[in-house]
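Researcher: We are triaging several targets before committing to wet-lab work. For this one, the compound of interest is zinc ion. I'm pasting the protein sequence and the ligand SMILES. What I need is the predicted three-dimensional arrangement of the protein with the ligand bound, expressed as structure tokens, so it can go straight into our comparison scripts without reformatting.
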Amino acid sequence: METLCKANKKELSPYKSINDHIDSLEKYAKESTKLLLNSVCSVLELKLKKAHPDGPLIFGGKIIYNPRTGKPIKNKEWDRLEEAIRKFLKIEKKQVVKRASKDSYWLGSILKRMSLEKRKKTPLSSIDLSKPDFAAVGFKDYDQDLINVSERLSGIYIQGVNDKTRNKLQSIIAEGTKQKKYPHQVFQDLWDQEEDINRDWDRVTRTESAYNINNGYLITTLRTSDEEHVFMKGLSAPGACPYCNRMIKDQIVVLLSEPPKTGETVVIKGKKYIAIWPGKSNYGRNPKNYWTVNPMHPYCRCNWTEWYLELEKYLKGE
Ligand SMILES: [Zn+2]
């Protein structure tokens, strides 16, 4: 999802804890990349700068990378290195998936149950995400299934980043061996990947977290509301892109627990409304027929807030 909006480059949400959550996940992923590259370099005895002091233990022993003196990596060592990279990425995956999916749902749910003022200011450090109790908030089996499938989906996307990372590192080492590159060149080639890997991490963690926070927020809205029809109003950041200004900002939509059979819209009391529901996404859709979905673009900082039609009448002075 490209960013069309230049405003608010740093903040993804008007709510402090969401920014904290996404920042800390990105930081974690970036540190993992650094740790992985450092460990691969140190196990291959590739050095240019000081090695990271706390390389993971799974990288045991040294592998001699010295193709120029006729000592290329042996097959056995090669397998060991591959296995170590795989193991390392698997451990990271578990952490990232949990934070991008279940933790994000729970954060969305907690935020929904706070006042708007509190929601804006409360930092993540004051929120406990460790013991989610979705059933206590009224989540149904149907909602729990959505959390489970979201978790699986985050896992698939994150596995994609991991596979790409592993392939990249392996091909650099193999190419280096094949081309008889000097160790410092291979070292450089490996570190040149850092930015690319982090960009992949960012894209996935940011999108997945934001979607799942929104889903947790919407489900909680549905399950805690007494209204017959739950209406919501779209909010966007000042300077949001034309799409978000047109499709989300100030839109009154109706929140349903399932997609309507009629497509994206429903008629309520003779009036047509765009419907939103937990899990609604533009995945697989062409930008030309995008649905009204939050988040559309991370930096447009779009949000839904509950809206009462009676209030509308009152404001109009009817
Ligand atoms: Zn936008």
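Researcher: Any quick observations?
Model: Confidence is low (pLDDT under 50) at residues 1-8.
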